[in-house]
Structures are given as C-alpha cells and as structure tokens.
Amino acid sequence: MIVSTRQTTAKRTEIADAALRIIGERGITALTMATLAAELGLSPGAPFRHFASRDEILEEVAHRVVELIGAAFPDPALPPLERLSHLFLARTEVLGRNTGCGRLIFSDQFAKALPENAAATIRGLVRQTRTYLVSILKEASEAGQIRNDLAPEDLLIPVIGTLQHLAFLASLPADGPPLRRPDPKRALNTLLTLLSLPDKHAN
C-alpha cells in the first residue's frame, strides 16, 4: 500500500477533489482558477489562499490520485489470486467514482499537460502498480494457480488493458452515445479465465 508522508489540509484536499472532477468531466484544459472556484462555489481568488499557482494545484491533484488509488492495495497476507481480484475490483470502483484518476493514469496526453513533479508522482504510482501486479502473477504462476506458458510480464498486458478499458468507459460523458458498460465482476471472471491454466485436452 502506498503511504503518503506529505502534509496537507482538508481545504487543500477539497480543492484537489474538485480539480479532479473537472479533469474527469471536462478535461485538464478546462481546469482554471475560475472554473475551480465555480466548482467549489467560491470567489475566483479563493483557491489562491491555499495554492500559489495552478501547477501547485495539479501537484496536489497527483498526490490525491496516489491516496485514492493507493488505498486500494489489498492485504498482503491474502493468496495471490485473491489479492489480484481485490485489487482489480477496488481499482475499478475507485476509477469509476473518480474519472479524473483514470484520465491522469492512462492518458499520455493528460500526463504531458502536468507539471513535471505531478507527472513524476503519477509515473511512480504506475510503476509501483505494475511491479506489484507482476509479482502477484509470478507468485500465482509458480504456485500452479495460473498458466505458466507465458511470462508474468506478458500476462500483465490483459490485466492492465482490462483496467484501462473499464476506466475509459467510466470516463465517458453520461449524455454521450449509449454504451454498455461491462460489469467489473464479470470482466474479472473473464480475465481470470484468460489467466487460468490451459486445458491440455483442448484441440
């Protein structure tokens, strides 16, 4: 689990959450001091009482993403596939409630719009998640719980891809074209089937 030692305040967290909502619903270019103040129901200059600049707000947003996503890491004492399942469902739930998180994590375009410190924070989260998932897949493979004919790094691709697709669907505007959003539990079951040991008797 990611533990942040960074000190913040309730008001800074409230502002970061509002910024995340704007990013998720309207995109990062829509995040201005004026739109942020309107989202919070404050005067245009109010955010400056807590942040010196838009870049500083985005740095706080990146730390907030780490807090929200980092809280989804499961109990390390659980068996590997249970850890994978818990992480998958927790991540899809967090990304569904906070669409800005998915945009910042999975979109290069969004990441490039961040100040370097904020982008580095997001990259660190992505690296930690990938390392964590590879270790789970390796442990499960060595225990004979999933297929071992493919490397854990290769099995990571459908895991990350499924999470990314669910995050993308969750971020679509509600007034857009109607699209069927898969049930995360059903998506997880499909993923576990793909990861399962190949049937030796299959033609």
Automatic annotation (TrEMBL):
DNA-binding region, residues: 32-51
Pfam families: TetR_N
MF annotations from Gene Ontology: DNA-binding transcription factor activity; transcription cis-regulatory region binding
HTH tetR-type domain: residues covered: 9-69
Presence of the UniProt keyword Transcription regulation in the record: yes
Keywords, ordered alphabetically: DNA-binding, Transcription, Transcription regulation
Protein name: TetR/AcrR family transcriptional regulator
Lineage of the organism: Bacteria, Pseudomonadati, Acidobacteriota, Holophagae, Holophagales
